[in-house]
Amino acid sequence: MKSYYDIIGVTPEATEEDIKKAMGFALQKASNDRQKMAIKRIYQVLAADGSRKNYDKALRYYNILGLDLPVEEKQLQQAANKKLQATKEGSKQLLINRALEELSKNYGAYSDVLLTSEQFTAVSKLSGIKKAVVEGEAGNNKTLFILIAAVMIAGGAAAYFFLR
């Protein structure tokens, strides 16, 4: 499943400040209200520690089941059965059963942090956000470099003037 982190162009280790910065870029890229609402929901989930932990767990279990989009609770069992039929290793089957059990048991908590399928599809179409985030950071570094260079030049000119 494409993660919220992928959608907004950050890593799962991103700080709240990194996420906030990425959200600005994502909102600029959003072309309609559905995408903007989904991006705001992503920020709400990733900015709150408890919600973020629940989201990370749900993402891990969805990936184990091979699900690409958020699904209804009844579709979890179908996905697990399909995955179990394709898997012959006992340890992987245990992992799949554990993921299904966890998602089913806590479906309410996990569904609170997941977008609807329609929202997820709309926002997944955004592209270039990660590039924009990286370029934005590079732009900030260039600005800092130019500012430091200007201060050094001004300091050198002042020193030359006073030492004459």
From TrEMBL:
<keyword id="KW-0812">Transmembrane</keyword>
<dbReference type="InterPro" id="IPR001623">
    <property type="entry name" value="DnaJ_domain"/>
</dbReference>
<feature type="transmembrane region" description="Helical">
    <location>
        <begin position="144"/>
        <end position="163"/>
    </location>
</feature>
<feature type="domain" description="J">
    <location>
        <begin position="3"/>
        <end position="59"/>
    </location>
</feature>
<keyword id="KW-0143">Chaperone</keyword>
<protein>
    <recommendedName>
        <fullName>J domain-containing protein</fullName>
    </recommendedName>
</protein>
<keyword id="KW-0472">Membrane</keyword>
<keyword id="KW-1133">Transmembrane helix</keyword>
<dbReference type="InterPro" id="IPR036869">
    <property type="entry name" value="J_dom_sf"/>
</dbReference>
